[in-house]
Amino acid sequence: MKIIVEKLVVKRRNRMIFNGLDAVFEGPGLYQVIGPNGAGKTTLLLTILGFIKPESGRINIEVEGGRTLVVSYMPQQYQIPRDAPITTIEFIESYYELLNRKHGIQTSKQSSQRRIEEVLELVGVPRSLWSEKLSRLSGGTLQRVFLARAIVADPQILLLDEPFSNVDPEGKVDLADLLGTLAKSKLLVVTSHDPILLLEHTKKILILGHGYYSFGSPEEILKYDILSKFYKKCAVEIEKHVHIIDWH
Ligand SMILES: Nc1ncnc2c1ncn2[C@@H]1O[C@H](COP(=O)(O)OP(=O)(O)OP(=O)(O)O)[C@@H](O)[C@H]1O
Ligand SMILES: [Mg+2]
Questions:
Q1: Nearest ligand to the CA atom of 39
Q2: Contact present, 147 and 163 (Cβ < 8 Å)
Q3: Which residue has the CA at smallest separation from atom 15 of ligand 1?
Q4: CB within 10 Å: which end of the chain, N or C, has fewer?
Q5: Atom of ligand 1 lying closest to residue 12 CA
Q6: Parts of the chain with a pLDDT under 50
Q7: Does the global pTM surpass 0.90?
């Protein structure tokens, strides 16, 4: 499986976000997309999904073996109305059923329940919250539920927009391990403000500035001379190590 981004030009509100972006994401494996706020990380995922039309250039998605292509997306922000009556299980179930119907896949109620329980366990949502209303979950738990929804249909490609943003420190380590495991058989494109969390699982890093970019191995990108171009004074070199200061 492959996402090929070719000479991509994208503008939003007349501002140039990508000015001829070239990148190939080849699975299985994990790619990180980093860069400051407003650099275009979310825009790239939305363009891959086809929600944003480029001015020029193209994105091709290739998948082997005639399998139906399933691309899942986990958004950076989601709003659950306070009075939404849906529970954790129902939220995943409705999406899973919709996808199965769309692809003409027949599953029994029993096997679909089993699969939903399996993914909820995998992402670490405690059983006591499976029948809880979505609107009552904490931000971090809700993020895990969205990840469970993203993986329930066993997609070949997973696009995850800042999956760590609301997760506590221990949860971050568990989540990084889980994404590393998923990346053994799938193509993952993950946006983040902290490239270190997923470093050991990362094939390449795409770093976005406002209209410019670099794409390369973690060793090529996580260097002071590259990071300081994108993060200005937040990139600091301490002895041989480079850090991006996270102010919040
Ligand atoms: N709905 C929208 N309509 C028009 N322009 C938008 C919209 N959403 C974002 N933009 C603009 O597109 C640019 C890129 O935004 P994007 O959300 O892709 O950045 P990002 O790298 O994901 O930032 P963050 O780290 O804050 O999530 C910004 O200049 C932003 O103002
Ligand atoms: Mg974003």
A1: 1
A2: yes
A3: 38
A4: C
A5: 5
A6: none
A7: yes
Ligand nearest to the CA of 248: 1
Pocket test for ligand 1, best of 9, 11, 12, 234 (most atoms within 8 A of CB): 12
**CB burial readout 140-164, b (16+ within 10 A) else e:** bbbbbbbbbbbbbbebbbbbbbbbb
Q: Quick check: CB of 235 below 6 Å from ligand 1? A: no
Strand pairing report for 157-161 and 187-191: parallel
Residue 96 and residue 115 in contact, taking contact as beta carbons nearer than 8 Å: yes
The answer to whether the CB of 35 is under 6 A from ligand 1 is yes
Q: Tell me the two tokens of residue 155.
A: 């997609």
Ligand 1 centroid–CA 110 distance in Å is 41
In angstroms, rounded to a whole number, what is the distance separating the alpha carbons of residues 148 and 92? 7
Per-residue pLDDT tens for 168-216? 888 899 899 999 999 999 999 999 999 999 999 999 999 999 889 999 9
- pLDDT at residue 162, rounded to an integer: 94
> What domains can you pick out in the chain, each with its CATH number?
1-69+156-248 (3.40.50.300), 79-154 (no CATH)
Q: Which pLDDT score is estimated for 243?
A: 75
Q: Residue 162 C-alpha to ligand 2 middle, in angstroms?
A: 7
* pLDDT, position 247: 58
